[in-house]
Amino acid sequence: MKNKRRNVFLHVMVWSVLFFFPFILSYNTEQAFRHVVAFSWVPLMLYMLVFYLNYLFLADRFFFSKRMLLFIGINILIIGILIWLRELGMDRFFPRPLNGEVGKGPPRKMVLYIQTLSFLVPIAWAVGQRAMERLIRTENERREAAHQQLKSDLQHLQYQLQPHFFFNSLNNIYALVDISPEDAKSTIHSLGKMMRYLLYDTHTEKVPLAKEIGFMIKYIELGKLRLSEKTQVDYNFPEVEPSVMVPPLLFISLIENALKHGVSAHEESSIFFHMELNNDQRIIFKGRNTDFPKTDSDKSGSGIGMKNLKDRLELLYPNDYFFHTETKSGIFHVIMEIPLHP
């Protein structure tokens, strides 16, 4: 609605300037006013009629639907009728020549030829304006579809995280009840905070980075409960201001991927996460873990995966992010860099 009003305002302003500019420049005489009406206002009204016929009807109905012969034919007919009406009106209400001289001025065929060409300007303007609006509308629709897909991916991530993580955590807590009741109570409390964050705080476009870091720490600590002493997990996250905002659950796929592929029941392994905010106002996340690739039959873990994470990054930060993964000597490395928008 706002864009429509702005568009109407721009149209009114452009035509107002075109109509009043010749009048302002004219002399304050009756003959000058007759010249403005005859040679400025009448053609402008005809151009305006041609423009809006094409802008509101003909361009969409014929030009953009590839019915070019009809589009050209209808416009030729309209231009012919308007030129005839203009000549008829000029001869009746503005007898030529106005200065009383006979035989002066360009040949009549040349005048008609120039008039015909002049009507091409409002036609081209109307088609160009409508094409630009269609392009903008298409781009907005594409962005809206991408935004909806992004929201769907995030919701899918939330739904994937909640069930399997919740049940894994319950199993870990169950094992702790007999071994360390106090640790079990603390873990239940931590799990409750995480589920509250997933259910209520992540349904927005941005969340405080401090909350996201708190969620990641709790996620890692709960994940460590199911790991044996053969796996070493370390992390280094900064303290940030509450005003720093990021998209929710953007880093959790990297953590979950490490806890899935960096763990072995029989071999020594290590997992490390690091996040920093550099002076260029960017967030840098680095991960490193021993790589134990899962078999094709292993369907555990988040459904969004690394590919969907990159899709989210492309939608959120087009051409303004860095994401790279590689495996060297059995160690998986990942680095992700995104702009920091407080």
Automatic annotation (TrEMBL):
Keywords: Kinase, Membrane, Transferase, Transmembrane, Transmembrane helix. GO terms for cellular component: membrane. Residues 153-230 form the Signal transduction histidine kinase internal region domain. One of its GO terms (molecular function) is phosphorelay sensor kinase activity. InterPro entries: Bact_2-comp_sensor_kinase, HATPase_C_sf, Sig_transdc_His_kin_internal. The chain crosses the membrane at residues 7-25, 37-57, 69-90, 110-128. Pfam families: His_kinase. This is Histidine kinase.
